[in-house]
Design brief:
This protein is mainly alpha-helical and about 150 residues long. The protein has one domain. It contains four helices and no strands.
């Protein structure tokens, strides 16, 4: 496994995160539209509420469209940001599954900017200690620095 991971959508946590962002944005837009509508009612006084609401939507359409345009950018950024946490967690999970199945693993390597660097260091210390105690958990490297089968 290389350190140059290309996938950024690697876990259902990221799906849930994007769903929550979408729900929060929808709630925000609903509240904003209603607050602007209430403001319109207070400023103009009683009138045709449907007409007043449609005018609020029309008057603030550029702001609503701007938020709609920003949504994919925010979602993509949240996905990439979450990958810095979720990606290492997926790698730790795989390594633990391999150890549980009796397979040897290589010391954990993470990319620059990934979260859980401290956890990586502790995990690697644990592997070294287990190896010192006679538990074969570390996979040997061949002469070219690649893991052997």
């Amino acid at each position: 496994m290389t350190n140059d991971r290309k996938l950024i959508w690697v876990d259902r946590f990221q799906t849930r995160l994007l769903y929550r962002i979408g729900v929060y944005l929808a709630i925000y837009l609903l509240c904003l539209a209603n607050l602007l509508f209430i403001w319109r009612l207070l400023v103009e006084g009683p009138g045709n509420p449907i007409d007043q609401f449609l005018r609020v939507l029309s008057d603030f359409a550029p702001a609503f469209m701007g938020l709609a345009i920003l949504l994919p950018i925010v979602a993509y950024d949240a996905l990439r940001f979450s990958h810095r946490l979720v990606g290492p967690l997926v790698r730790f999970r795989r390594a633990m599954e391999e150890i549980a199945q009796g397979e040897a693993v290589r010391p954990m390597k993470l990319r620059e900017g990934d979260f859980l660097i401290d956890m990586r260091d502790e995990f690697n210390k644990m592997l070294e200690e287990l190896q010192k105690r006679g538990v074969p958990v570390l996979r040997a490297l061949d002469d070219e620095g690649k893991q052997s089968a």
